[in-house]
Amino acid sequence: MHRRIMAPGALAAASLMLAIPASAASLSPGAPGIGDPYYPAYGNGGYDVSHYDLRLKYQPATDELEGTATLLAKTTQDLSRFNLDFLLDVSEVRVNGAKASFATSGEHELEITPNKALAKGTSITVVVRYRGVPSTKKAYGFNAWLRTSDGGVAAGEPEGAWWWFPSNDHPLDKATYDVSVQVPNGTQFISNGTLQSTSSRAGWTRYNWRSNKPQATYLATFAAGRFDVTTGTSESGIPVINAYSKDLGDRAGAARASIERTGEIADWLSEYFGPYPYNALGGYVPNTNTGYALETQTRPFYSPSNFANGSNTSVVVHELAHQWWGDLVSVKKWKDIWINEGFARYAQWLWSEHEGEGTAQEIADYVYASRAADDAFWSVEPGDPGPENQFHIAVYDRGALALQALRNEIGDDAFFAILKGWPQKYAYGNASVADFVRYAEEVSGKPLAALFDTWLFQPSKPGAPAARSASIAKSAVEQPKSWKKIAATNEVHEH
């Protein structure tokens, strides 16, 4: 990533210090990273954003995006300067109404110097005017913007925001969103939350979307293209909006047969995880050539390839489970990714059980028995896999296996109380793997550090005694009927 001092005579320095108020003496630039060990330059220090208002115009023919982002934030230190994560070309920045100077640095940093220093605890309004062609911008050698034949899409993890709006790009800084995008008539714009209104004028249509619950920056989505849109309401009363590219070809039927069950699946998941936490539901499938899916809040992104072999409700279960595990409760640091992926995978195992295609126990037995001790799979530690293995299959399968071991150790009553209680305890906030271990011990009344160490933090296959203790692979193992469907989602987040 990237990184970012004066000493005159002693008397001069002393007299200067006496002349500077204490608040001014403490002024310093906000850190260019929020402090994540996996991605040191991601996010920023010195402030916390509460709301993003994005008012944009997008031309699919040229992939040009232009407009204004307004950020409402509060300083968390005395600030002389602060950064936003962004890649497009900025023409003007204002802080609390006054023009601010700005410059770019590193791979994706926009450095902003307000005309007046900002004291800790100050409410600030930051306005950034910009334009650019997202598909031409790279950072760290890659481009996360998805160009399609009829528009563009932003849906990436752990980064994706830089290509379309300036932000404090880390899950620790969640905010609410108003996203208003103007596109040519005949093109639709899809984003998170509820569609507040649309209006047309002079050949352009403006779509106004709102996310009224805290949302991590990587979960904000931008999708412009030609879509068939369906609307409905789940049995529990949540409005559902789904969108399908008009160019899905022979995958259109399988995609619809899967995603149109979103309301049903979300209601089913709420039996395990508690009430659905948002006021909107849905999913969208643009005509991309990617292989992954992403739990963009309230309206997951799916790739056409997710449905290449027919309908796949398992991938829908996975992304909707993330609405609780990853979206409602987000990671403190990216090393805590098991909190997202292990639980979303385990939801797929529960769905298999629901569909009569193999119990969670049978799938756990199969995962344990089907990989030899020298398989590199076991060398990845789901509890802290490292940035290079953040989306390794072990985080999913070994991560879910750890949950079955936990379930067998503490019993169904305590286990399912944890699945329902955890999202409520940390709702709209952030938590770590260590937080989960403590919570599981609190609810179950059992010491669990050794169990979690064995199944999440050792770079080797848990031995037979550990497996017997956790009631894993205790009998002959056959491949569960659901296994191929689950395995078809193995790369849903690898991109």
Automatic annotation (TrEMBL):
What keywords are assigned to this protein? Answer: Hydrolase, Metal-binding, Metalloprotease, Protease, Signal, Zinc
State the superkingdom: Bacteria
- According to the record, the signal peptide region is 1-24
Per the database record, which ranges form the Peptidase M1 membrane alanine aminopeptidase domain? 309-455
Q: Does the keyword Nucleotidyltransferase apply?
A: no
Q: Which reaction equations make up its catalytic activity? A: Release of an N-terminal amino acid, Xaa-|-Yaa- from a peptide, amide or arylamide. Xaa is preferably Ala, but may be most amino acids including Pro (slow action). When a terminal hydrophobic residue is followed by a prolyl residue, the two may be released as an intact Xaa-Pro dipeptide
Question: What EC number(s) are associated with this protein in UniProt?
Answer: 3.4.11.2
Alphabetical list of Pfam families matching this protein: Peptidase_M1, Peptidase_M1_N
Annotated InterPro entries: Aminopeptidase_N-like_N, Aminopeptidase_N-like_N_sf, Peptidase_M1, Peptidase_M1_aminopeptidases, Peptidase_M1_dom, Peptidase_M4/M1_CTD_sf
- Cofactor(s) needed for function: Zn(2+)
What sequence ranges are listed for the domain Aminopeptidase N-like N-terminal? 50-219
Top-level enzyme category: hydrolase
What family is this?
Answer: Belongs to the peptidase M1 family.
- Official protein name in the record: Aminopeptidase N
